[in-house]
Amino acid sequence: MLISCQWFITYHFIAHYLLIITHNKSVRFLIIIPAHNEEENLPFTLDSLQQQSFKDFKTVVVNDGSTDQTAEIIRKYTENDPRFETLDLQKSAHQPGSKVVNAFKNGLRTQNTDDFDIICKFDADIILLENYLETIQDAFKNNPEYGLVGGLLYVEKEGSWVYEGNSNKHHVRGPLKAYRKECFLQIGGLRETLGWDNIDSILLENLGWKEIVLPELHVKLIKVKGADYTIRPADYYGRYFYFLGLNRFLAYVASAKEAAKSKSVPFFFKIIKAYEACKTDQLELKISKEEQKAINDKRWKMLKKKWLKM
Q: Is residue 8 part of a domain?
């Protein structure tokens, strides 16, 4: 009886000790940054990484066929900081969504993911707060159900930095994705298609993970002044809704929403035309039938909750 009691105490002491070690263990970030002709913006992004309070990360900057001084700028960091590496690619085909994911995947292949805990896809034109990685790390360590975490994007407008407002405040935007590695692997990584940064969110939630936005983390997104990135051509939306895997009904509803934003009935029909053209051509989707069903189920639930009050 005494031996059993001693074993019980020893077992729980060891278990508690391992729990403390695991909780206090520093996680390691792998940051992949696709970059094409970003000579003006990239230094701000890489400087903000060097200034992070959390130091345990590796950054791979993928130079995607740049014709400006991007390669020379990257070299300044790789030659002086071992945490920075680079990969040079020939310019990939300019297909919205697929181009940046293709560059990301090429960068990811240069690393052994077993060496990392968090996998990030960052854009080459963002500026992070000094505590950004540290706060992301704490969120993942303290919440094992978190699969995707990020801050909010802010853009410069009339001399001030204001919330971009190009998406809801519960969605981690494409320029600043940070995935728990286990979650990233379970969803099959990123898809080389339009809508990749919505597909990931839906798939991870379908698997029981949570997508979390930390509103206190303001991330500056450097853009050409005066450019309105919320306006897209109708063809873009039609292709986006198709490659997202939306069925015809949900695609039409989404098209009507975008047309309402533009206050243009013809815009609705142009989106539909592009969507139907994709269906007629039977363009390949980068998601499985099961994943497509999960996406449509999620969108339908959102529609019922927001518009039908069900």
A: no
